[in-house]
Write a structure and sequence with these properties.
homodimer; mainly alpha; Farnesyl Diphosphate Synthase; 2 strands
Chain lengths: 347, 347
């Protein structure tokens, strides 16, 4: 298994600098959520375990490095210079907003496992999980409001509204077997890609990147966000909980149609489609133990899992193309490598 | 029934000015939540019906009027002057944060009625209600970030963190029959009084109030917030759904001890307390149909409902005293009248 940041040797310096930055982000993250209440301390400490790859803060930092256009590639100068504290705050804010959505998503999905630990809802009930997510959101905006400008807060809040819109659209189309690829893509663009694109944009903007560089990095983030979600949906369908580290099979159970299923329904001959539809419906309703396995067989027959994986890879290639006009810095190379890792990951 | 703002005739001008201001707040509120998604539009329109007294924006406006120290009492000058737009934004932000907590509270309380209409969770499920609440929170911070300074956003976000802390503390102490008055007061200070105090403080601050005036109005708001919650808890215990307009009996069902019950347990002779405890526990568990009625009888025997009402009135008198050094403007008189209305209300 490769970590998202386990990239080739020439990037060792970037990796070290990034790790130090992420450590500082964690410090700001924890400080921002401090509370005088024991009940709150206990919960925030538990959720710290959800912290994984820290993809969003890493993208803030590398986008700043890539946009600064420093050919010597001294990421350290960007991250440790005068714009460093702001980049740490923006990174922590994006991670906190993301963590809040994880906590709330686990309530929605009735999930009991996250990063190999218990979810908040499984441990302390849905009520506590809802309010804890709210606490993280409030903490994120509190931290964001300590910046010396409002543009970042405005961007993060707008992104959060878009993310919620995507989730509401998805809920609205639940169990809707006529969902098409365009709508699926619109949903994941909002619910996942928006915040990742925002992380890239904010990093690039704070580093004083040119409008073209900021736009390129935003476009890169939007695409790897989409690829990440397609891959995530695939893992939910085909992965095993021990490897993925969180509850799998959530999508089918919650009536969420994902790319392989949409592709399969479109690719099936009319006579077959009715059967697949019935199977998908049964898999979605969770009342037929073997429906998911049967559905998986049918998906393989139309090459739909393979198609979804190829789609994710094509989106990643498109993400990488967005960076072609940026100077060839170590930060840019790291971003290219990270994009590749998104579709390789098994967790 | 009196409306919170249905105050005596000499305040008609204030009332008219306030109504116009609240209309502008509603305009900003709705504009801030606009979405291109039909699914989102449908939900935000439904929640508009929850809008009731708009206590928080009203307090923003009147605190601004009272803090400006304009003896002629020209609230219009304050609300329509250069600081007007900022006051409208702050009012809409406080209302939006409050509305988000209502939507999430209804999920936590499994309530199905709010302002005589269906709750979002009853209508569209818990998932949609959780995300819609998140959408309101994001909308609030987005709107707040359009101000020309960060102090207000910082204050609102801090208040939201405190509110969540209060809710988490309350959840942590659920079914805890040893809960004392001090902890109950600490919970309602956080979960209810904090945001109301913030509304007063922000209004006073934006109107350029002196530090003493800002502190007085913040203290006033904190107290009427506490009195409001004590009264709300009483209505939950003694009110009828047709009058209150929302589900009642929530607190007992969710194992939340409120002031009358806490007072009763403390006032009961030791031999009686065990029986009351058992009854409170049964009432809390909802598995005994007549336990709430029996508990109510016992509460009356120790004068505990009366005690809670008198406590609310004492807090209101304390709130009114906080305003004694402010100039005698129509805004101040309106605030004094509003404080009185808090403990009179039956809904």
């Amino acid at each position: 298994m490769r970590d998202l940041l386990d990239i080739d040797d020439s990037l060792k310096a970037v990796q070290g600098e990034l790790a130090a930055y992420l450590g500082r982000v964690v410090g700001r993250f924890d400080a921002a959520l401090e509370s005088d209440l024991l009940a709150v301390q206990r919960l925030t400490r538990h959720v710290e375990r959800y912290r994984g790859k820290m993809l969003r803060p890493a993208l803030v930092a590398l986008s700043a490095g890539a946009a600064s256009g420093d050919l010597a590639g001294d990421l350290a100068a960007v991250l440790r210079g005068p714009m460093g504290p702001g980049l740490e705050i923006v990174g922590a804010v994006c991670e906190m907003v993301h963590m809040a959505t994880l906590v709330h998503d686990d309530v929605l999905d009735e999930a009991d496992t996250r990063r190999r630990g218990q979810t908040v809802n499984a441990m302390s009930g849905n009520e506590t999980a809802v309010i804890l997510g709210d606490y993280f959101i409030a903490g994120a905006y509190h931290l964001c409001s300590t910046l010396d400008e409002q543009a970042s807060a405005l961007r993060v809040a707008r992104a959060s509204m878009v993310v919620c819109g995507g989730e509401l659209l998805q809920l609205d189309r639940r169990d809707d077997l006529s969902l098409d690829v365009a709508t699926y893509m619109a949903i994941i663009d909002r619910k996942t890609a928006e915040l990742i694109a925002t992380a890239c944009e904010l990093g690039a903007t704070r580093a004083g990147g040119s409008p073209a560089a900021v736009a390129a990095l935003e476009a890169y983030g939007r695409r790897i966000g989409a690829a990440f979600q397609v891959r995530d949906d695939l893992l939910d369908l085909t992965g095993r909980e021990e490897v993925v580290g969180k509850s799998v099979g959530r999508d089918a159970r919650k009536g969420k149609l994902t790319l392989p299923v949409i592709h399969h329904l479109a690719a099936s001959p009319p006579a077959e489609r009715a059967h697949s539809l019935a199977l998908a419906l049964r898999a979605a309703r969770e009342d037929e133990g073997d429906a998911p396995a049967q559905l998986r067989q049918r998906l393989d027959a139309t090459g739909s899992v393979e198609h979804a994986q190829r789609t994710a890879e094509a989106i990643v290639a498109d993400a990488q193309r967005q960076l072609q006009d940026l100077p060839d810095t170590p930060s840019r190379r790291a971003l290219l490598a990270m994009a590749g890792a998104v579709v390789d990951r098994a967790f």
